[in-house]
Amino acid sequence: MKIYTKTGDKGKTSLIGGRVSKDSLRVEAYGTMDELNSFVGKAMTELDTETFKDMLEDLEAIQNELFDGGGDLSNVMKERHYKLTEASIEVLEKRIDELMDEAPPLEKFILPGGSPASATLHIARTVARRAERRTVTLMNEEEDVPTVVVRYLNRLSDYLFVAARIVNARLQVPDNEYVRSAKVFRTNDKKKGE
C-alpha cells in the first residue's frame, strides 16, 4: 500500500461526501483537531502509567473522541450519522469535577509550565481553544455543523487545564502564578469570615 495518492497535489482534499480546497474552513477546523490530538498523544508519552493511570485512560478516550469529532466535521453528506455525542461531554464534566476535588486551591492566574507533561497539556489546551474557534467560524459560515463538537472542545479545554494542574500536583511541582495577577478565583475551602 502506498501512503501517497497524489490526489491532493493541486490543493484539493477529500471529505466524506465531497472535495474542497485544502484551506477551506472545514479542513482548518478538523485539521486543528488533528493537531490537538497529536499534542494529547505527546502528553501521554510524558506521563508514567503508575501515577497517571486514570489520566492516561482519559486521554486515550479523548484521542478517539477527537478523531470522531474530526470525522464529523469532515462529513458533508446529505444524510449524516455523527459519532461524537453528549455522553462524551458528560464524561469530561464528571472527570473535571473529580480532578478539581484533588487540585490544590487556585486564586490567581497561572503560567503554563511546571513539569514537561503539564506544559504539553497546556499547549493542548490552547490548541483546543483554537479548534473551538475554528469550528465556531465554520458554524457561522456554513450549515450542518454538529454543535456537539463546539461544546466538546469547550469542555475539553477545561479538562486539559485541570489535568495540567493535577500533573504538577501529583509530581509535587508547584504551579507558577502570574506575578501581576489579582485574586481572580474563589476557593471553596475558605472558612466564612476569612
From TrEMBL:
Q: Which GO terms describe its molecular function?
A: ATP binding; corrinoid adenosyltransferase activity
Q: What is the lineage of its organism?
A: Bacteria, Bacillati, Bacillota, Bacilli, Bacillales
Does the record carry Magnesium as a key word?
no
Q: Which family does it belong to?
A: Belongs to the Cob(I)alamin adenosyltransferase family.
Which GO biological process entries does UniProt record here?
A: cobalamin biosynthetic process
Q: Which NCBIfam families match?
A: PduO_Nterm (TIGR00636)
Q: Which UniProt keywords apply?
A: ATP-binding, Cobalamin biosynthesis, Nucleotide-binding, Transferase
Question: Under what name is this protein listed?
Answer: Corrinoid adenosyltransferase
Origin: domain of life: Bacteria
Q: What is its EC number?
A: 2.5.1.17
Q: Does this UniProt record's set of keywords contain Transmembrane? A: no
List the Pfam families: Cob_adeno_trans
Name of the gene encoding the protein in the UniProt record: yvqK
Q: In which pathway does it act?
A: Cofactor biosynthesis; adenosylcobalamin biosynthesis; adenosylcobalamin from cob(II)yrinate a,c-diamide: step 2/7
**Domain Cobalamin adenosyltransferase-like intervals:** 3-166
Quaternary assembly: Homotrimer.
Question: Reaction(s) catalyzed by this protein?
Answer: 2 cob(II)yrinate a,c diamide + reduced [electron-transfer flavoprotein] + 2 ATP = 2 adenosylcob(III)yrinate a,c-diamide + 2 triphosphate + oxidized [electron-transfer flavoprotein] + 3 H(+); 2 cob(II)alamin + reduced [electron-transfer flavoprotein] + 2 ATP = 2 adenosylcob(III)alamin + 2 triphosphate + oxidized [electron-transfer flavoprotein] + 3 H(+)
